[in-house]
Amino acid sequence: MPERWWRMVVPGLAVAGHLFAWIQFQYRIDALPLPEAWRSQFVFLLLFSLAFALALSFCRRLLFTWLLLSGQALLLTVIGLPFGDYLGVEVTLLAAFIIEAIFYTPWWQGAAAAAGLTGIAVGLQQLPITAWGARLSVASAHDQLAFAVYAGLLIALALLLRLEKDAQSGTATQNRSLHDATLQLSQINMQLQEYAAMAEQESVLTERKRLAREIHDTLAYTLTNLVMMMEAAMDMAGDPGAALRDHLQLSRDQAKAGLAEVRTTLQELRAVKPSETAGLPAIKQLVDTFVKATQMEVSLNFGNAPLRFGAEADWTAYRVVQEGLTNALRHGRASRVWISFAWVGAGISILIRDNGQGAAGLKEGYGLMGMRERLERLGGRMLVESKPGDGFLLSVWFPVKEGVE
């Protein structure tokens, strides 16, 4: 049971206990040798005790809690004394005090206070009491023993419930911590996946540049020297060796052509830059990275959508999918996500839903608000729906200009 429910249950039991004590008083007052004025005095003290009980549910500081409990214990003693051998009202109010003491304070302190008040009540029952000139009868040893046993059993039961509550609260805290840690690890894993892809691309680029330098320093240098040597040989051959000169000239031209091709290839190798993926390929890469990092099942359907939507629309679509995946992981705690694209009217429709826990009264955070503003600049719209147990639904549409790929 969540903590907020306990904060409602305990005051509810206190109210029920005080109401039942008033009913007991109404049935018993005529049989007691007490004046009529005690009726109004009893109601006043009972309401005062109830006010203390309700105030305890709003108290967050331990010192104030103990002050309220001390006042309530004093009121319980004053209320119970005039009843003499009738212990019904005292048992009922003591039960409410035991529950409040054990649930509103550290369990061992609350149990000690409940046991101490029980001992005081039993001790006072041993004393002859005179009220309003009438001597009240003393409860029998049997009734006093039953009073102590009932109080002890109630203390034990309240302790068991308190320990179970603490165990559930600890488990819930551990689950939240585990979920937060898993989320952080997933995000770090996604960043590592993206870094690995970028590092691999940079590595390929670096290797291309190294090969270009090696080719330039070896093959291009050799071909350049070969051309120069052939031109020198042609000059040395002169006119008498026309056939030889023609052959050397042909060899020189082929060497020049080979050198030009090598230089062109070197320029192409050096001109290669890391690819800037956009549009649907970028979204596919994002989803693949997310799946590897989180092990979540994602169904991706591009339908009849084009590969690119335009620079700003590409980035918007990427952020929409990214936000939908993040919500499914962080807030919905989903295990599966469905993403579908479709060409609808003069634009693109994106539908993202998951099988998470959902939420009632969903409030848009900065991510969703930023996405809505970006879509409005494009002339698009966004719909967000979520119900408890029904997952999270994100529906987006934005216009796309004609002529996209």
In what order do the strands lie side by side in the largest sheet?
3-4-5-7-6
Number of strands: 7
Q: Classify the secondary structure makeup into a structural class.
A: alpha+beta
Which percent band covers the strand fraction? 5-15%
Mean pLDDT: 80
The dominant shape is: rod-shaped
Helix content, binned percent: 55-70%
What is the string of SSEs from the N terminus onward?
Answer: HHHHHEEHHHEHEEHEE
Number of helices: 10
Main sheet?
A: 5 strands, mixed
How many structural domains? Answer: 3
What's the end-to-end separation, in Å?
Answer: 55 Å
Kindly provide the radius of gyration, computed on alpha-carbon positions and rounded to a whole number of angstroms: 42 Å
Outline the low-pLDDT stretches.
none
Pfam family, one: HATPase_c
Catalytic activity: ATP + protein L-histidine = ADP + protein N-phospho-L-histidine
GO molecular function: ATP binding; phosphorelay sensor kinase activity; protein dimerization activity
EC number: 2.7.13.3
Overview of the molecule:
Keywords: ATP-binding, Kinase, Membrane, Nucleotide-binding, Phosphoprotein, Transferase, Transmembrane, Transmembrane helix, Two-component regulatory system. Residues 313-402 form the Histidine kinase/HSP90-like ATPase domain. The chain crosses the membrane at residues 5-25, 37-56, 63-81, 87-104, 111-133, 145-163. GO terms for molecular function: ATP binding; phosphorelay sensor kinase activity; protein dimerization activity. With 405 residues, this protein is α+β, with helices and mostly antiparallel strands. It has 3 domains: 3-139, no CATH class; 187-271; 279-399, Heat Shock Protein 90, CATH 3.30.565.10. It has helices at 3-28, 37-56, 62-80, 88-104, 107-124, 141-237, 242-271, 279-294, 311-330, 366-378, and strands spanning 129-131, 134-136, 297-301, 336-344, 347-354, 381-386, 392-399. The strands form 2 sheets. The protein has a 5-stranded mixed sheet with strand order 3-4-5-7-6, with helices on one face. Strands 1-2 form a two-stranded antiparallel sheet. Strand 1 and strand 2 form a beta hairpin. The protein is rod-shaped. The mean pLDDT is 80.
